[in-house]
Amino acid sequence: xxxxxxxxxxxxxxxxxxxxxxxxxxxxxxxxxxxxxxxxxxxxxxxxxxxxxxxxxxxxxxxxxxxxxxxxxxxxxxxxxxxxxxxxxxxxxxxxxxxxxxxxxxxxxxxxxxxxxxxxxxxxxxxxxxxxxxxxxxxxxxxxxxxxxxxxxxxxxxxxxxxxxxxxxxxxxxxxxxxxxxxxxxxxxxxxxxxxxxxxxxxxxxxxxxxxxxxxxxxxxxxxxxxxxxxxxxxxxxxxxxxxxxxxxxxxxxxxxxxxxxxxxxxxxxxxxxxxxxxxxxxxxxxxxxxxxxxxxxxxxxxxxxxxxxxxxxxxxxxxx
Amino acid sequence: xxxxxxxxxxxxxxxxxxxxxxxxxxxxxxxxxxxxxxxxxxxxxxxxxxxxxxxxxxxxxxxxxxxxxxxxxxxxxxxxxxxxxxxxxxxxxxxxxxxxxxxxxxxxxxxxxxxxxxxxxxxxxxxxxxxxxxxxxxxxxxxxxxxxxxxxxxxxxxxxxxxxxxxxxxxxxxxxxxxxxxxxxxxxxxxxxxxxxxxxxxxxxxxxxxxxxxxxxxxxxxxxxxxxxxxxxxxxxxxxxxxxxxxxxxxxxxxxxxxxxxxxxxxxxxxxxxxxxxxxxxxxxxxxxxxxxxxxxxxxxxxxxxxxxxxxxxxxxxxxxxxxxx
Lengths: 321, 326
Prior knowledge:
heterodimer; A: 321 residues; mainly alpha; two-stranded antiparallel sheet; B: 326 residues; 4 strands
């Protein structure tokens, strides 16, 4: 469902917001890394994500090895007498087509998965980066300067969070002229995503700004900019890491959902969500067509969620210690 | 208290107006030519001109917006067509007032939302509670691992998997077609059980995690120790002291999630072919029927904003601490 995609990730992040570690000693990156390498589950997640990222980065190289590009039609692999169902069992999985082919047009699913990873990773990472910058900057501005700055930013956040984000994204994307879809997706996802990070950052900045070390820095003549970047920002690192790792799977899901609904990445560009969408009319005759992109989407989101959860527990423990 | 409620309602009116204006601007200013969009794919130049004329698209944007607002409260005329009071627009593709289209489909969406909400509340809260009480046991660890998995399944993937396994392979359920409850209660239930489950899984997993961490937090509070020291039994304390503070935050999130669902579950309704507001929105997106998409957006925003207020009021009733600081 629609509101869920936005809503679920939101609520997951909400969980982080409550036990906000307002400035304990910042958890060292090394501690996060050691915890992850000692945990078999987390390690498996890292491994899977590494494979996905590798697929995304080296997509043209990989498809050269597998022999089929994402836009190549292979009419020999499908049975045109049966309405275009792939030849062979399991959606036409063979040595030639590692993950089988799409029904009707015979495009290689492996190649499309590899190129789809590119779309998912690029869009979700860019959206995370943009939300991160917006959320941290605006959240810190509101929390540090308070007064009318806070009023303006907070009202804007209330306004944006009052929207059913997914329906609104659809509305915007469907009314805009086609143009550069991926960029539009990133902008729209970030526009509705930043308040959730900014709200947490704002609250923590408010508490941190009253702490003794900030006062000490001021007394020794530090300017606002120095206080913000040298004193406050390092203490926010834990929450920023946790909230962004938990946001990425949400954005991957959102992109896939929007593409599923036909307002995301436009064909013939491959995206996992859009592959699942085109498999809907085929699922009873060719279940592999939806099972493969579905599994990749699920595993990627799961890996990121598990990792984010692990990192959060490390950071929380660090704050409690 | 009265003053607070009135203040909140005032805020709601402002936000709803802002939402209307924002939506209107997006649809009528951002899109290159709204008349062409509204007219749809099969369209003649004369029809585009008449639509432009009927909608007053040649007038300044504020006048247009004012007419749109007027339409919502007193109705308006689209050329020869009359669109009665809550006029959210007129679909030139289906030749129907959008409000009529919405009211025809609202019952299905409400059924979907209510059923799913009951499922996820029960499963989530009970699951989370058991996990908290049995903290650290294999039940707790398994349940929480499953919950992480459940949060990660995109619901259209789950919907297709369920549909494939239960309908195509095992054939325990018929292909969904939503009959009226009165006609055939069994078929009605069978049609809705899959959408309910699909929608409920993600939320149930989240609620289980939230309930668990809230209950565990509450159990470490001082008053809990006091109650133990007084000699009260654990189950009694759980019922009397732990549940209320642990579940109050859940009501907040529940209100928002439920309100969000009332505006239509686009993907789920589409996959299961349920003719609710969500499916109508998805179909309108495919046909580019702008007035319908705009009305659904407004309706969904309306539900969320109202849900927000209701949640705040319920919160005041539930949590004495908020009342004191008021």
